[in-house]
Amino acid sequence: MAALVVTLFVTLVLTAWLTARPGSPSLYPPAPGEETVTVRLVAGPWHSGLLLPRDTLARAAEEAGAGALLEVTGRFRAYPALEVGWGDAGFYRAVPTLQSLDWRLALRALFTPGGRPAVLHVVGVAAEPGAAFPEAEIVTLQLSQAGFRRLAAALAQSFTRRDGHPVVLGPGLYGPSLFYEAQGRFGLLHVCNHWSAGLLNEAGLPVTPLLDTLPRGLALDLAWRARPHAP
Known about the structure:
Largest sheet: 7 strands, antiparallel
Strand order of the largest sheet: 5-1-2-3-4-9-8
Number of domains: 1
Shape: globular
Number of strands: 9
Order of helices and strands: HEEHHEHHEHEHEEEEHH
Distance between the termini: 43 Å
Radius of gyration: 18 Å
Number of helices: 9
């Protein structure tokens, strides 16, 4: 039994190491004295999203000619920040809280061959992060300007566009929010936390997908490899 445990541990460590994605030193961490953009990971019990400054995101979308993302930021212009998350279309919309978790729906979302359709959830946030998400773990990151532009470009590609416009699916789960049709397929090897980690990796941060499968794992991964700033 001890040998089996050791073997499993070594296998997990080796898999994590082999699948780890390096960061980009030219993007992260920002150079001393460089103007930065504050981005926060909002990690709940089973889901994570990114809290982004709306005005800066809108400027990045405009500079990149990302019309769909610019339309989204315009729709939420009354709010200083946007929380954006990605997930399974069926599970995300049907399970607003941990208490309403449906395990059959969760297993179907994780193990459907070929993955399942995805959605983006966008929330306008006016309160301070701790007040807006009192039950979440919040990891504060200072990104370089160039890194944030790359993150914004990756986010823009996550929206499904129809005639150049993002596809609105209806009201979101809480606060001033909307669901949008999203690119990508949700499954065990690509869950919401992998999507969050992927955007941060675009911004230059190193990530470890195996650890990032769970929100707490992603938060620990960032603490170990990216050394985030205090909130």
